[in-house]
């Protein structure tokens, strides 16, 4: 077995999101890559543009920064920022996007990254020879121009999110305000709560995401669905929590 022996540095979250100051401080001489998901999964938190830009300026140039923007398309216009412009300024930056979320193409397994030739050349060298198939590429290019679909996705998501948090408020459940297409909700005070409620939901035919592996055993991550799917989830949750 051959290994390049990487070590991962975990930085404690702050208010369920990235603590950029602590992350900058944790960069060591041998640090090669910093990974930031914005909005973040599974918590749905969001770092505003100014904070990210300040972080990029603080990071040494030999450290690659990946900003994973899988949920970017759900952000409201006032929160949108042009991270692609930063790519021109910061040769160590990679911005990644996926077509699996707001574009609705998860079944095609296609996404993309933007970076300067220095890093994209390296990525290209280790890229698997047969990765994104031609049909997926054609669909992705077409989807990029389909602004109406994207807007509809964001609207349906915003409405569904409201539907979910309204129910959580009614049930007196704590949740983390989300900028993505899911919401993290606390379903009990004991460390068995997430797994227990997840199992009960499964028995009613509803699949959500337990997040015990993220150190959040009392929480579940609920993906925003269509209105009737959200309603089915809410009804099931009410019967489970009594
Ligand atoms: C933060 C984040 N990045 C990237 C992805 C990748 O999505 P996909 O592999 O479907 O492109 C996900 C999917 O859940 C995600 O949550």
CATH topology type of the largest domain: Aspartate Aminotransferase, domain 2
The amount of beta strand, in percent, is 5-15%
Mean of residue pLDDT? Answer: 96
What's the CATH superfamily of the largest domain, by name?
Type I PLP-dependent aspartate aminotransferase-like (Major domain)
Secondary-structure content class? alpha/beta
- What fraction, in percent, of the residue positions are helical? 25-40%
State the low-pLDDT regions, or none.
none
Overall number of strands: 8
CATH architecture of the largest domain: 3-Layer(aba) Sandwich
* Order of adjacent strands in the largest pleated sheet: 1-2-3-4
Q: List cofactors, ions and other ligands.
A: pyridoxal-5'-phosphate
Account of the 3D structure:
The protein has 242 residues and is of the alpha/beta class. The chain has 2 domains: 20-144, 3-Layer(aba) Sandwich (Aspartate Aminotransferase, domain 2), CATH 3.40.640; 148-241, Aspartate Aminotransferase, domain 1 (Alpha-Beta Complex). The chain has 8 helices and 8 strands. The strands form 2 sheets. The chain has a 4-stranded mixed sheet, covered by helices on one side. β2 (64-68), α3 (83-89) and β3 form a beta-alpha-beta unit. The mean pLDDT is 96. Bound molecules: pyridoxal-5'-phosphate. Pyridoxal-5'-phosphate is lined by residues 37, 41, 68, 70, 98, 100, 106, 111. Pyridoxal-5'-phosphate (PLP) is lined by residues 37, 41, 68, 70, 98, 100, 106, 111.
What's the short story on this structure?
This protein has 242 residues and is an alpha/beta fold. The chain contains 8 helices and 8 strands.
